[in-house]
Structure formats: C-alpha cells, structure tokens
Amino acid sequence: MKKEFFLFGSCLFLFILHQLLEKCFHVRIEKVDNYLDALVCLPIILQLIVWERRVLLKDAYYRLPLLHIAGYFVLLSILGELLFPALSNRFTADGWDVLCYAAGTFLFIGVNSYHRIY
C-alpha cells in the first residue's frame, strides 16, 4: 500500500508543480509541457478510482482488474487524442501522448504488483 501512496503523491506533486510553473510563473520547458501531464494522469486517475471503489465496496484490498485498467487507457487515449482535438483547436492530437498514457498505465500496474494468475 505504501508504494501506491508514493506513486500517487509523486505524480500529483509533479502535476501540480508543473501547472504552477507553467500557468503562474510562465516557465516553459517544451518536453515537460508536452508530455508530463500525459505521463502522470493515468496513475493519478486510476488510484483515485481504486480508492473510490474501496470506500463504496467496503473492501480495503480492492484492486482494479487489468481489463478495467486497459479500458481506462483506451478511453483516455480516444478522448484525449481523437475526440477533444476534433471538437476544439485548443487540443492537439499527438501519438506520443498515447505512449505517455501507456507508460503511466504500466507504472501503475508495476507499482501495484499485478501478476498474472494461472
């Protein structure tokens, strides 16, 4: 459980720090501006979903099934890289973001010790 708190806290800290630097202090670091949010968003979102389910289901050891994790990855990829850019010019479709979503997803899976059960 401590590893999942560390991952969540680290990702949330990086996200907030980046937003403050970018929006409040106008600090621009191109690669960070382009890809950090995509990298940390799924570990944050997935951990919040796990906590919500643990409360609602009253199961302190609940873990998201891998199929659900994959579904959230696909949903975010479609929304973030296809739908939003089609609806607004404020969004840009970028295949590298999908790789960042995937990396964040695999990071979440690795930290939460998912193993294939036979």
TrEMBL record:
Keywords: Membrane, Transmembrane, Transmembrane helix. It comes from the Bacteria. The chain crosses the membrane at residues 32-51, 63-84, 96-114. This is Magnesium citrate secondary transporter. It comes from Flavihumibacter fluminis.
